[in-house]
Write a structure and sequence with these properties.
alpha/beta, Rossmann fold, 5-stranded parallel sheet, two-stranded antiparallel ribbon
């Protein structure tokens, strides 16, 4: 029976670029009998199927990508890229997906920008060539493979309750904050941070820390509350507002110019000036959005404000609107989702994340049966406020251990023994120590304040490290997702190309068979002359495929039907 060409095409299958189709259907269309073929026994292939979900594969992949992505400039990044490609290329990971992941790591460490896409691709290809030479690792081999792990990562990480020591029981003021926070189902550390920001907002800017390094130190202080979305900053701010019951100007973050204007130095009368503002950042993305706009100075104003430096405009016509140094109080409380903390961590070179103390926005001690708010003679207790006139003026007194510790750290820093993210840690701690003394009803820092602020600084380091870990984990997950998506796109594009090529070859096979059936044996040249020019490059593969399937044979230089 006759069969039309589209029906033949519908019977086709595909393997790579080689066309496989149903030869029996073509013989049925031609009215011929297919030749007898020997039965072939499948031979197992000594290789492996892609299996990126194997635990050892994922461990090896994550470890090498992390190491590559965190490499600094001038540290042999291109050589390490080649080694990573050679090492990971032996694992059962689809090459297109692996290449995209390696490119993302190159983008993270900066070598993609410096060397360019072509150089990185060439280095990866070279690594893959070595992997092919060494041979793949089968899953059986993986079961016996030991992946090197940083021994520090095997040590149990300290829990928050361990780091706290006796912090919450050391003073009645801290016991009050702790119980009040849990009673309203808010993180005690987040509430403490908000209380500290509100208290420091009440301290006149003329009150400064002693000039240990450089000039007098400002009490302007920043806190980052780290938690996932809905992590409790709003609840913490509400509890702190009840505990520190005072009129405080709270503003959302805006442009650098907007932050300067919040202090109203353009007002005609000096009594109209605004002395203190607590800037509240509900989502750290908003800070990134402002800082990312062309010409914005938000990040610079934050850095200057932390140290109490002069704020102002450098362009003509607005020089009179500057805010002189140590004439304003700036405190900041920001809600930070770790995966979106890039606006802070990526500005470590500018010094932004170093100016924040970090506190957890969630706490496992929050339960569905919270304690009651502490009371005194039937009235809910709050933190006592010190009258402005009793705060005094000038320099705050500190115990000898404070300048001693700060000077030792400064000397070590000048010798190159420091951590970039800890460059302002003691300055933040000193400011926080004053907030603790205020909560205790005092206006001078003592050794107990310094010791307790050290515990808070340890919690801050722990919280910041967890936030940074969450940020890096989010970056790598996004890189893997982008790599997977690009791999899928590449596969789909390749699939479309293969299907298109297959259709062209199938059409040419049907055309060759029809030509031979109508006009008898024909040479390759004769077939080529009858083809359109666009199909001539595919004639050879079509003749080869038809020959392999026993549809046509070459007899004395001419093609004829089998």
């Amino acid at each position: 029976m006759d069969m039309d060409i589209p029906a033949i095409a519908r019977n086709q299958t595909r393997t790579g670029r080689r066309v496989n189709y149903d030869p029996d259907a073509i013989h049925e269309w031609l009215g011929t009998k297919p030749p007898k073929r020997p039965t072939l026994t499948p031979v197992p292939v000594n290789g492996h199927k892609p299996n990126i979900d194997h635990p050892l594969v994922r461990t090896a992949l994550q470890k090498r990508l992390d190491e590559l992505g965190h490499m600094a400039a001038n540290s042999g990044r291109n050589a390490e890229l080649n080694k990573a490609a050679a090492y990971l290329g032996r694992f059962p990971i689809p090459r297109p997906q692996l290449r995209d992941m390696l490119i993302d790591a190159c983008q993270a460490n900066g070598v993609l920008t410096e060397d360019g896409q072509r150089q990185c691709d060439a280095t990866i290809t070279s690594g893959f060539a070595k992997a092919d030479k060494d041979g793949p690792r089968t899953l059986d081999e993986l079961n016996h493979l030991v992946i090197e792990v940083d021994p520090h990562k095997l040590q149990p990480k300290p829990e928050l309750e361990t780091l706290e020591q006796n912090f919450w029981t050391a003073r009645q003021s801290l016991q009050l904050i702790h119980q009040a926070a849990l009673s309203r189902m808010a993180s005690p550390w987040a509430v403490l941070a908000c209380c500290a920001a509100r208290i420091l907002s009440l301290v006149p800017p003329a009150i400064t820390l002693p000039a240990i390094i450089g000039g007098p130190g400002s009490l302007n202080w920043f806190a980052a509350i780290s938690a996932k979305s809905g992590g409790g900053k709003g609840a913490a701010m509400a509890v702190a507002a009840k505990l520190v019951d005072a009129e405080i100007i709270v503003r959302g973050i805006g442009s650098g110019e907007g932050m300067i204007e919040a202090y109203r130095r353009s007002a005609k009368e000096e009594e109209d000036y605004v002395e203190s503002v607590l800037f509240s950042i509900d989502e750290i993305d908003s800070l990134g959005a402002m800082g990312g706009r062309s010409g914005q100075t938000t990040m610079a104003i934050l850095r200057q404000g932390f140290s109490g430096e002069k704020l102002g405009y450098s362009y003509r016509g607005r020089q009179s609107e500057t805010v002189p140094a140590h004439t304003y109080r700036m405190t900041v409380v920001a809600s930070v989702q770790p995966e979106r903390a890039g606006v802070l961590f990526d500005d470590a070179g500018g010094g932004t994340p170093q100016r924040f103390m970090w506190f957890p926005g969630r706490d496992k001690r929050i339960t569905a049966q919270p304690p009651n708010w502490p009371t005194d003679h039937g009235r809910e207790r709050v933190l006592p406020l010190i009258a402005r006139m009793d705060l005094g003026t000038g320099t705050i007194a500190v115990p000898p251990i404070v300048p001693q510790t700060i000077r030792q750290a400064r000397a070590a820093s000048m010798s190159g023994d420091d951590n970039a993210l800890d460059s302002h840690a003691l300055y933040c701690r000193e400011k926080f120590a004053y907030a603790l003394s205020y909560m205790d009803g005092r206006t001078e820092i003592d050794e107990d304040d310094w010791q307790l602020s050290g515990i808070a600084a340890t919690v801050s380091d722990w919280c910041r490290a967890k936030a940074q870990e969450g940020y890096q984990s989010g970056k790598h997950r996004q890189s893997r997702e982008r790599g997977s998506l690009r791999a899928i796109e590449n596969d789909e594009r390749e699939l479309v190309e293969q299907e298109t090529y297959s259709k062209h070859i199938q059409r040419l096979i049907a055309w060759v068979i029809k030509e031979l059936k109508d006009d008898g044996p024909l040479t390759t040249g004769a077939l080529n002359r009858n083809l359109q020019s666009r199909d001539r490059p595919r004639l050879g593969p079509a003749l080869t495929a038809a020959t392999e399937r026993g549809l046509i044979v070459l007899v004395e230089g001419k093609w004829e039907l089998s």
